[in-house]
Specification:
The chain is 53% helix and 12% strand. It is built from 30 helices and 14 strands. α18 crosses α23 and α22 crosses α24. It is globular, with a radius of gyration of 32 Å.
C-alpha cells in the first residue's frame, strides 16, 4: 500500500503541468524522501546507529522520472541489519522500482570508499533520508576528508574513467542521438568537475553561471525524455526529439538540439580545461621551443604575450602553433583574442592565407583548436559566415554530427588526402565550406555557392581559384549521387559528369572532397561498395576527358562469356553465391519484378541490379544484395526464384503477410520520408531514368518494378540504395515506342508508382 502510494505521488509530480522541467527532479526527490522517511519510521524506528542514505542522483535531489533509486542503509554494528533493510527494499521491489542498494557499517563504507572510486564519488553526493543524522554527518565528513587526502592520487583514475566514458558514449554536442548523461559534455562531466574540485583541483570559476545554465538545459531534456518515453535511458533518440522539444516549449526539434549542443559544448570545454589542469599538475613542464613573436609557453599552455590588436596574424600563428605542438591555448589568451583581435585586411595577405591553410592541414589535431577559438567567438571573427552553422543539428539518416562539427571532420579527413591533388589548399578550404549554406534558408548548395565566392576573395584567393571553390561546393554531391544512382556503363552518364567537371584536375579535387565528406558524414555514407563506385566513375570520366570522348561497349560488363553461353542455351538458370543472384531466362515481362519479389520474401536487401537482353530473346538479370547477419541459404533462395518465375508462388499475399509480421528496422529519422518520383530524359543514352525516393518497406522494389512492367516498360538496369529507412531506387527503362517517354506517359507512370507504394504500408 505504501509503495503504491509512492508510485501515485511520483505520477502526480510527473503529470503536474504547473512544474517546469527543471523543478521535477527536486519534486520527485522530495516525495520519495517523504515516503521513505515514513516507511523507515514504520519498519525500522531506529534513530541511533542506523540511517538511510540517498546516493548518486537521488543524493543530489535530481531524480528524473525513470532514474534508479540509489540507497544505502548504514549502521554501527547492528546485528539484524539485513532483515531491517529488507523491510525497506522489498516494498520498493514489489512495485517495480530498480534499486541500487547496499547495507554497510560505517567503517566498511569508509574502507570501501578508500579503495573504490565509484563508492567514494557516490558518497560525495550523499545525504540523509531518515535515521541517525549524526552518524551520516560523521560518514560524509570523514569521506570528504578522505577524498581530499587521497583524491589527488585518484585523479588519474578518474581522468581515465572520463576518457573511457567519452569513447563509449561519444560527444553530446555533435551527435545525432546524444547520450545526455554519459557523453562528452553531458551531465556526468559536471559531476566529475565537482569531484575534481573537492579533491583540490583548481577548477575555473569564470563560467560558473554559464556551466549551471548548461547543466539545466541537459537536465530538463533528460527529464522530458524520461517523462515522454516512460522508460530508462538517457540517449535522446530521433523519434523522441520532436516530443521533447514540444514539451520544453521549443519551436521544433532543431531548436532543442541546437540548445543541447550549445550547452554541452560549454560543459565539454570546461571539463577539458579541468582535466588539463590535472594533467598539468601531474606532468613535468614541457620543453617546447616557441618561435613565434607574441607567444610563450606557461604551465604547458600557449599564452599570448603580444598585442592582438597590433598583429592581425597573431591569432593564426597561435592556432597553428597549438596544432603543431599539441598544446592548448590558455583561457586568458583566448579571452584576449576575443576582446582585442583586429580585423585582417580585405583581401587577406598571402601570409594569413598560408597560415589558415596550414591550420586546416592539421587534421584531427586542428579540431579542438578551432573549437576553442569558436567557443570564445574568435573563429567567427575570421569567418563570420560560420555563425548560423554553429551547433546546428542535422536530423537525417546520414549525418552523425552537427553542421559545424561535420565541416571540421571533413577538413580533417581531407587533410589525409592532400597528396592526391595538385592544389591541397583548395581541397582543404572546399572541405571547410562545402556545407556552409546549411545554416541559411534555402537550398544549402545554392546558398553555399553564393557565400563561397566572397569568402574566397576575402581570404585572398584569385578569381580563378574562387571559381574553383564555388564549383566544388556546387558539385560536392555529384559523384556520390551519380555513382550510386546512375548507370556507369551508360555513355551519357559519363558525358554528363565530364561536362560538369571539365578537367581532370578538378575531378581529382572533387573525388577527394567526396571521400572526405562521406567519411565525415557517418558509417552509412561510405564503405567499400560506394568507394568502388565513386572510384569507377572517376576513372571512366578521366578516360573520357583524356580521350576523344567516346565510350564503346558491346554488352554489359557483368555479362560474362559463361552467361552468354547460358543465354544461348535458352534455358532458365538461377545462380546464387556470395552477395549476388544471377538469373538467365526468356525475355518476358515481369521477370525482373518476380525475382525482386522472391528476394524480398527471403528478407534480402537489394543494393544494385542490372539487366541485359540478347537479340535471341533471352535476358539476364543480376542482383547484388546486402550481406545479412546470417549466411544466405542460396539453395532456398534460388528455389523461391524458380517458383516465382514459374508463377507458382503468390508473391503479393506472401509479401503482405511478411510485412505484417516484419519488425521494421529502427528508424534513423524522426521525420517521415516523403515519396518523390523524378524523371530524367537527358542523362541516359537509350533510356529514360526514373528515380523513386520513399520510405523503406518490405517489397518496395517488387511493387515498383511490377508497376513499371504493367505500364509496358522494360527495365534495362537499376540502382538500389537503402540507408536506414529511406530507399532511392533508380530505373533505366524503355518502352515499345522507344527510350524517350512522353510527358503524358510519365504522368501515368508516376500515378502507377505512387499507387503501388500504397500496397506496402
Amino acid at each position: 500500500m505504501c509503495s503504491r502510494g509512492l508510485v501515485e505521488r511520483r505520477k502526480e509530480v510527473i503529470d503536474d503541468k504547473s512544474l517546469e522541467a527543471w523543478q521535477i527532479p527536486e519534486a520527485l526527490s522530495r516525495v520519495t524522501d517523504e515516503f521513505l522517511a515514513d516507511l523507515y519510521e514504520k519498519e525500522i524506528r531506529l534513530n541511533t546507529d542506523v540511517a538511510l542514505v540517498a546516493l548518486g542522483g537521488y543524493g543530489r535531489s535530481e531524480l528524473c522520472p525513470s532514474s534508479d533509486l540509489d540507497l544505502m542503509l548504514v549502521h554501527k554494528h547492528q546485528e539484524d541489519i539485513d532483515s531491517l533493510a529488507d523491510r525497506i527494499w522489498y516494498p520498493l521491489w514489489d512495485e517495480g522500482f530498480k534499486l541500487g542498494h547496499s547495507v554497510r557499517s560505517l567503517e566498511q563504507t569508509l574502507r570501501l570508499a578508500a579503495d573504490d572510486l565509484e563508492t567514494a564519488t557516490s558518497l560525495l553526493n550523499a545525504r540523509i533520508v531518515a535515521g541517525d543524522r549524526a552518524l551520516v554527518d560523521d560518514l560524509l565528513t570523514r569521506n570528504e576528508n578522505q577524498w581530499a587526502e587521497y583524491g589527488p592520487a585518484r585523479l588519474e583514475e578518474l581522468a581515465r574513467n572520463v576518457t573511457r566514458r567519452h569513447l563509449l558514449a561519444g560527444e553530446v554536442a555533435f551527435l545525432l542521438e546524444p547520450d545526455l548523461k554519459e557523453g562528452r559534455g553531458g551531465l556526468r562531466d559536471v559531476h566529475a568537475i565537482d569531484w575534481a574540485a573537492r579533491a583540490g583541483v583548481e577548477v575555473p570559476t569564470h563560467d560558473h553561471d554559464r556551466l549551471a545554465d548548461a547543466y539545466r538545459v541537459l537536465l530538463e531534456a533528460r527529464v522530458e525524455l524520461h517523462r515522454i518515453s516512460a522508460k530508462r535511458g538517457d540517449i535522446l533518440l530521433l523519434e523522441e526529439q520532436d516530443s521533447v522539444a514540444e514539451s520544453l516549449g521549443d519551436h521544433d526539434a532543431d531548436v532543442l538540439m541546437g540548445r543541447v549542443a550549445a550547452a554541452s559544448r560549454t560543459i565539454a570545454y570546461l571539463s577539458d580545461e579541468t582535466w588539463r589542469h590535472i594533467d598539468r599538475d601531474l606532468a613535468d613542464e614541457l620543453s617546447v621551443e616557441i618561435n613565434v613573436a607574441g607567444l610563450s609557453l606557461v604551465d604547458n599552455e600557449l599564452v599570448i604575450v603580444g598585442d592582438p590588436s597590433a598583429d592581425p596574424l597573431l591569432v593564426l600563428h597561435a592556432a597553428v602553433t597549438a596544432v603543431r605542438s599539441g598544446l592548448p591555448l590558455a583561457r586568458q589568451s583566448l579571452r584576449l583574442l576575443a576582446e582585442r583581435q583586429s580585423d585582417l585586411p580585405d583581401p587577406w595577405p598571402q601570409g594569413a592565407r598560408d597560415l589558415f591553410v596550414e591550420l586546416l592541414s592539421g587534421g584531427h589535431r586542428a579540431i579542438p583548436v578551432i573549437e576553442s577559438l569558436d567557443y570564445f567567438e574568435v573563429w567567427t571573427h575570421l569567418l563570420p559566415e560560420w555563425t548560423p552553422n554553429r551547433s546546428r543539428p542535422q536530423r537525417n539518416v546520414y549525418h552523425r554530427f552537427t553542421v559545424d562539427r561535420h565541416l571540421l571532420e571533413t577538413v580533417a579527413e581531407a587533410a589525409r588526402l592532400t597528396q592526391r591533388v595538385r592544389r591541397p589548399d583548395l581541397l582543404l578550404v572546399a572541405a571547410l565550406l562545402h556545407d556552409i549554406g546549411k545554416g541559411y534558408p534555402g537550398d544549402h548548395t545554392e546558398v553555399g555557392v553564393r557565400l563561397v565566392g566572397p569568402i574566397a576573395s576575402r581570404c585572398g584567393f584569385s578569381a580563378s581559384d574562387a571559381e574553383v571553390l564555388s564549383r566544388l561546393v556546387e558539385h560536392h554531391l555529384l559523384l556520390p549521387d551519380v555513382a550510386t544512382r546512375r548507370d556507369l556503363e551508360d555513355t551519357q552518364t559519363i558525358r554528363v559528369v565530364a561536362e560538369k567537371v571539365e578537367t581532370v584536375e578538378f575531378l581529382e579535387l572533387l573525388a577527394a572532397l567526396t571521400e572526405a565528406d562521406s567519411i565525415a558524414t557517418g558509417p552509412t555514407a561510405w564503405g567499400e561498395w560506394k568507394a568502388h563506385l565513386v572510384e569507377t566513375l572517376a576513372v571512366l570520366v578521366t578516360d573520357y576527358i583524356s580521350s576523344d570522348g567516346s565510350i564503346r561497349r558491346k554488352r554489359r560488363s557483368f555479362v560474362t562469356q559463361q552467361l552468354e553461353s547460358l543465354m544461348a542455351e535458352g534455358e532458365t538458370v538461377v545462380q546464387g553465391s556470395g552477395d549476388t543472384v544471377t538469373i538467365v531466362a526468356p525475355d518476358r515481362a515481369g521477370t525482373f519484378s518476380r525475382a525482386a519479389g522472391a528476394l524480398a520474401l527471403r528478407g534480402l536487401d537489394v543494393l544494385q541490379a542490372d539487366a541485359y537482353s540478347s537479340e535471341a530473346g533471352m535476358a539476364v538479370s543480376q542482383f547484388r544484395v546486402a550481406e545479412p547477419d546470417t549466411p544466405v541459404d542460396w539453395e532456398r533462395v534460388t528455389e523461391d526464384v524458380y517458383q516465382c518465375l514459374d508463377g507458382h508462388l503468390a508473391i503479393d499475399s506472401r509479401i503482405s503477410e511478411r510485412a505484417r509480421v516484419y519488425r521494421r528496422r529502427t528508424a534513423l529519422s524522426a521525420k517521415p520520408v516523403p515519396t518523390k518520383v523524378i524523371f530524367d530524359v537527358e542523362s541516359a543514352t537509350d533510356a529514360t531514368i526514373i528515380e523513386v525516393r520513399t520510405e523503406d518497406h518490405i517489397g518496395v522494389l517488387y511493387h515498383l518494378t511490377r508497376a513499371l512492367t504493367e505500364m509496358g516498360l522494360d527495365i534495362r538496369s537499376a540502382k538500389i540504395q537503402t540507408i536506414a529507412n529511406e530507399v532511392v531506387d533508380t530505373f533505366y527503362v524503355t518502352s515499345a515506342n522507344g527510350p524517350a517517354l512522353s510527358e503524358s506517359h510519365c504522368r501515368e507512370i508516376e500515378t502507377a508508382l505512387l499507387h503501388s507504394l500504397t500496397r506496402v504500408d
